[in-house]
Amino acid sequence: MKKRSKTNWNRVDALRDNQIDYSDNPPLEADFFKKAIAWPGTKEQITLRLSPEVLGFFRRQGKGYQTAIGRVLEDFVEKQKNPPAEEELILPFEMRAFSSVLQKYHRVKRNNFFATIRAFPHVWKACLLLDKIFMSEFADAENIRESRQLIPLLLLMQAHSEYRLAMELAFSTAPAEAGSLLRQGIESAAFAHKLHREPKLVAVWLSADESKEHKSAFKKAFVENRRANLFSGSKALEELHMHWCHFSEASAHAGIWNMANRIDTDHAATEGRWHLNYFEQDRKVLAPELYRLLDVAHLIEAVVFSIFESRLQFDESLLKSRALFARYKELVRAELKSEIGPQPVPKRSVTAEHFETESI
User: N or C: which end of the chain has fewer CB within 10 A?
Assistant: First the structure.
């Protein structure tokens, strides 16, 4: 038999809101909702291929590992939606050491870096995959036995270093400066291939600054008739030469055309003002330059592989990664082409979402 309640429900119903005691049930503050986990709702079943290392890690966590994978992915998606907070863009040490103007510059540069990754996630992923391939090749070539391969290896490492710096600049929306570094990277790769193919020229390359005669021998071997001397012998080198010419015109010279797309003007009734933007704002200008970065680095990697192919051809994991990258790069190219068209018009936009600019 159900026990009869002793509560006077008529009195409870007659209470007004300001008469109710909420001391044992306080209102929820904003901090509660920051830590709360939203109800996920319905889920869709799919087939997902994961590497044995990743799957093994989650399985070792015990029961509910599939839910844990889902939460990691949800957290990643949430972070991609939200731009970084201002305090995440500059370190405490930099706040103490930098002037206010330099702090602003670095905040804008890093904000652009994160914004570009969010805007072009597939280009970023392709750059990271290619960087991993470079590191695998250098690891495989670490214990080379032929002395004639040492200088080429060092030059190719230098080219990879220049690619990394160019990647940072390009994703920070400074493609012209990235182009100058890529131009140097192309030269490093071309010199490496030349010295590998003609090891007797190593002495000429090393002694270039010792005397006028040595400098003349260097120019004859490497500078004169540059296309035939440095950029012949493979399709990758021929394509690198085209990129080298592009960067030589677009990035290496301090001419008016190099700055023209970065200058904005304000005209008032009594005066005119001009601004030189430090960073590119137009997505349609930035996108093809990001792909050019990827293409140049891929061609440099092809030079690395060709020089050390006798050793690298037995690394099955590396071969699979190279094939995967080639397919992924084509998907990126098709995606960018569908977005910006085959011949994007380099117009400037001051309202590009998430992008900022620094000017003087």
Answer: N
| Phi and psi at residue 295, to the nearest 5° | -65, -45
Q: How far is CA 309 from CA 140, 233, 302, 314, in A?
A: 10, 15, 10, 9
Q: What is the mean pLDDT of the chain?
A: 82
Say if CB 275 and CB 360 are below 8 A apart. yes
Name the token pair of 189.
């790769």
CA distance 315 to 94: 43
pLDDT, one tens digit per residue, over 129-162 is 999 999 999 999 887 767 678 899 999 999 999 9
Give the C-alpha separation, 15 to 127, whole Å.
66
Q: Domain map of the chain by residue range?
A: 120-267+274-340
Percent of the chain at pLDDT exceeding 90:
32
The answer to whether the beta carbons of residues 328 and 129 sit under 8 Å apart is: yes
Cα distance between residue 65 and residue 48, in whole Å: 14
The closest of 332, 296, 289 to 169, measured between CA atoms, is 289
What gap in Å lies between CA 89 and CA 103, rounded to an integer?
A: 9
157's tokens: 């490492």
Instruction: Evaluate if residue 36 carries a pLDDT over 80.
Output: no
Q: How many CB atoms lie within 10 A of CB 284?
A: 17
Q: Side chain identity at 315, as an amino acid letter?
A: D
Residue pLDDT, tens place only, 44-96: 888 888 888 888 888 888 888 888 888 888 777 776 666 667 677 888 888 88
- Kindly provide the residue ranges of all beta strands, DSSP E only, lying in the chain, ordered along the sequence: 263-267, 272-276
What lies within 8 Å, CB to CB, of 251 at 6+ separation is 176, 177, 179, 180, 183, 258
Check residues 3 and 166 and name the one with the higher pLDDT.
Answer: 166
